């Protein structure tokens, strides 16, 4: 009965000579499209041959290597992704801090400019009130001095606030 032959007898009948396998599998080309039709059409007897088993073992080794490479690549990508996410969150937090500082800075700029404008207008208005003559000129004279003092105070306060802002901003800039 020929169907019950051992794998050694099957290779001898087919003319194949068993070859010893190297201890480490060779790196074969991954393009084995020519074997696809053959792989699907093998019978149990043909699969029992040493050559078929060597092909299957080689495929198992290749697939194992590809799996390890894919896992390593996935882990590297995940690690890079985590690094990018961490960097994104750090930059996002820095951006939020800078936006808040800009809002504060814009509000302080607005107050500074309004104080300078109003103070300058009051100082410009005061000489007219100081030189008025006629009835009630004493009262106008006092109002002129008050307006001059208030205008001078607004300008001095806004310039002083700007000076303090620049002094306090320098140490904060170093802490970033």
Please tell me about this protein's structure.
The protein has 176 residues and is mostly helical. The protein has five helices and no strands. The chain has one domain.
Short note summarizing the structure:
With 176 residues, the chain is mainly alpha-helical. The chain has helices at 7-14, 36-40, 44-47, 50-130, 137-174.
Main attributes?
rod-shaped; mainly alpha; 0% strand; 5 helices; 176 residues
**Could you tell me the strand content as a percent range?**
under 5%
| Gap between N and C termini | 87 Å
Helix content: over 70%
Number of domains: 1
SSE topology string? HHHHH
Show unreliable segments: 24-28
Average pLDDT, rounded to a whole number, is: 76
- Radius of gyration, in Å, reads 45 Å
List the helices and strands and how they pair.
Elements: H1 7-14, H2 36-40, H3 44-47, H4 50-130, H5 137-174
Helix pairs in contact: 4-5
